[in-house]
């Protein structure tokens, strides 16, 4: 960031404010003091031009002195950014008070110098001259305060983009200042501008021996009121903008936007809004550290969960198996399993735990362990489900449940025995036509005395079993189909008979990815089992639309 570029806009800001002050002085001389343009050109405008030039030079020097640490850093990057941040935050108020002090000192010194040139002392002043000096003081201080407020307001706005570019995490906390101080200074200054302007006009008319012109007084009051309201509105809007940034960032956190975990709120002031931003940023850092710890734990849990599952591709004599497990988050409640418990027999499992995240993953792990133990003990799929159900109900105690499909295949006789605990009915695809195997009972973990039933089916070469969780059909719910089941059946019917089991799985996953715009917040697991030898294709097919 090149802070040297700041010098140019500051110059034009000082020039604009100095010209505004010159305009106010000129209008006062024309319409209140009764001067003419010819007289102003001969005397006043030259003096005003000198004052404008003097003000420009003075404040450019002041800016260079106060901001020299910005474009001539002698520190490390972190310390440099913190010093720049502090200097930019201090600079508007420093400029304001410098202008006020300049007005308080320059006005009296100018009049003292004027008296010395005229060889007069303060003791020699008449009452009329004293009143004239007081009138001039009111006039000068009103102009100076007006310019100081403008400087403070526009410098704050000018520095905002530069502050926003600084890395917030490197900022060090400064001595706080209350928001009441900020608004009290602005309000008091605007009040004094109004008061001094009115008193100056009254003294000026009295010294000229003229009556007060009500319309001129109303015009002065109206102008000062409009000026004050405009300046005060600008500061209120700036305060509102800072609060809005804070509110928007909190909403981002509430909406669980991951990028918001690392985002910081720019600290734009030393008042309550700045302190609130500092506290929020510290809270963000703590949340970020805790979130990173949780992320590491979840990644470890994901690795463990993946190791609990078997290889996604397997072959059991005449049967080929392809599976896919896609958790919605780092870990999920879906699962599948393949267990060969004799040379001619193997079991397959697919399940879905209610809920998501870590609780579902823990129940999933427990269910897998129970299933593997009970399958090795022997029995039919229905008997195994009954034993697992009793043990799982003691673990979850009705707070969660598991839908599960369990099948056993005799690879020599090509015989399937299948039982379901509330899981979605799998499809037996024969001759390109999917037929659901509807054998279902209550999910595991609800009723320990539930009796499960099973179905026995003879498989033929070319048959395919399609088992899945609801994360698959939720994505298939399009306007062209009444349900996700209709959509899934339609896609299955379009399979080419020569496709390998791996290709069929990839086709389903590709179709799911294409329909991801429909939105799903669930895990997705697919398990395909093909019977008989199938010629494999070299390329995975593309979805048909």
Automatic annotation (TrEMBL):
Domain (PPM-type phosphatase) spans 319-531
* Stated name of the protein: Serine phosphatase RsbU (Regulator of sigma subunit)
Q: Which keywords label this protein?
A: Cell membrane, Hydrolase, Membrane, Transmembrane, Transmembrane helix
The record's PROSITE patterns line, in alphabetical order, gives: HAMP, PPM_2
Q: What is the lineage of its organism?
A: Bacteria, Bacillati, Bacillota, Bacilli, Bacillales
- Alphabetical list of Gene3D superfamilies matching this protein: PPM-type phosphatase domain
What sequence ranges are listed for the domain HAMP?
A: 263-292
The superkingdom listed in its UniProt entry is Bacteria
List the Pfam families hit by this protein, alphabetically: SpoIIE
Q: Which InterPro entries does the record associate with it?
A: Bact_Sigma-Reg, HAMP_dom, PPM-type-like_dom_sf, PPM-type_phosphatase-like_dom
Does RNA-binding appear among the keywords? no
Q: Membrane-spanning residues where? A: 6-31, 43-65, 96-117, 137-159, 179-202, 214-237
Asked whether the keyword Zinc-finger is assigned, the reply is no
Q: Where in the cell is it found?
A: Cell membrane
């Amino acid at each position: 960031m090149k802070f040297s570029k700041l010098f140019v806009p500051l110059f034009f800001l000082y020039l604009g404010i100095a010209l505004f002050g010159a305009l106010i002085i000129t209008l006062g001389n024309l319409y209140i003091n009764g001067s003419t343009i010819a007289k102003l050109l001969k005397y006043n405008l030259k003096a005003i031009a000198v004052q404008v030039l003097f003000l420009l030079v003075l404040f450019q020097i002041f800016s260079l002195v106060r901001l020299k640490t910005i474009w001539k850093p002698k520190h490390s990057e972190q310390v440099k950014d913190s010093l720049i941040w502090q200097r930019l935050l201090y600079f508007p108020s420093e400029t304001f008070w410098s202008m006020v002090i300049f007005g308080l000192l320059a006005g009296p010194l100018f009049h003292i110098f004027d008296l010395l040139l005229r060889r007069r002392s303060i003791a020699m002043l008449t009452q009329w001259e004293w009143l004239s000096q007081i009138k001039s003081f009111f006039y000068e201080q009103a102009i100076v305060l007006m310019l100081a407020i403008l400087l403070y307001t526009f410098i704050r706005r000018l520095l905002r983009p530069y502050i926003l570019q600084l890395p917030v995490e490197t900022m060090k906390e400064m001595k706080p200042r209350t928001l009441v101080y900020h608004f009290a200074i602005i309000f008091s200054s605007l009040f004094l501008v109004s008061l001094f302007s009115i008193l100056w006009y009254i003294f000026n008319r009295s010294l000229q021996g003229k009556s007060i012109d009500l319309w001129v007084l109303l015009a002065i009051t109206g102008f000062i009121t409009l000026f004050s309201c405009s300046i005060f509105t600008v500061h209120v809007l700036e305060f509102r903008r800072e609060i809005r940034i804070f509110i928007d960032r909190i909403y981002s956190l509430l909406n669980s936007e991951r990028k918001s975990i690392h985002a910081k709120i720019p600290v734009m002031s030393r008042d309550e809004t700045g302190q609130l931003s500092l506290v929020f940023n510290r809270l963000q850092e703590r949340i970020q550290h805790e979130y990173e710890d949780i992320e590491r734990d979840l990644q470890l849990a994901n690795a463990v969960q993946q190791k609990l599952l078997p290889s996604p591709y397997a072959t059991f004599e005449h049967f080929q198996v392809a599976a896919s497990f896609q958790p919605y988050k780092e870990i999920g409640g879906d699962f599948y399993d393949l267990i060969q418990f004799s040379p001619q027999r193997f079991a397959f499992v697919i399940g879905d735990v209610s809920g998501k995240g870590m609780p579902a993953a823990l129940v999933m792990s427990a269910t897998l362990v129970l299933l593997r133990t009970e399958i090795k003990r022997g029995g039919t799929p229905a008997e195994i489900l009954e034993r697992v159900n009793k043990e799982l109900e003691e673990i979850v105690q009705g707070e969660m449940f598991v839908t599960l499909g369990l099948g056993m295949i005799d690879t020599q006789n090509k015989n399937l025995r299948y039982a379901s605990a509330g899981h979605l009915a799998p499809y037996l695809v024969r001759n390109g036509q999917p037929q659901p195997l509807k054998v279902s009972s209550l999910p595991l973990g609800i009723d320990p005395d539930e009796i499960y039933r099973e179905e026995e089916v003879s498989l033929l070469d070319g048959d395919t079993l399609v088992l899945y969780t609801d994360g698959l059909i939720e994505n298939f719910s399009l306007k062209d189909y009444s349900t996700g089941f209709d959509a899934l059946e339609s896609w299955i019917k379009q399979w080419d008979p020569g496709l390998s089991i791996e290709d069929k799985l990839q086709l389903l996953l590709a179709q799911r990815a294409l329909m991801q715009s429909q939105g799903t917040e669930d895990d997705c697991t697919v398990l395909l089992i093909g019977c008989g030898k199938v010629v494999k294709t070299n390329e995975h097919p593309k979805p048909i639309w």
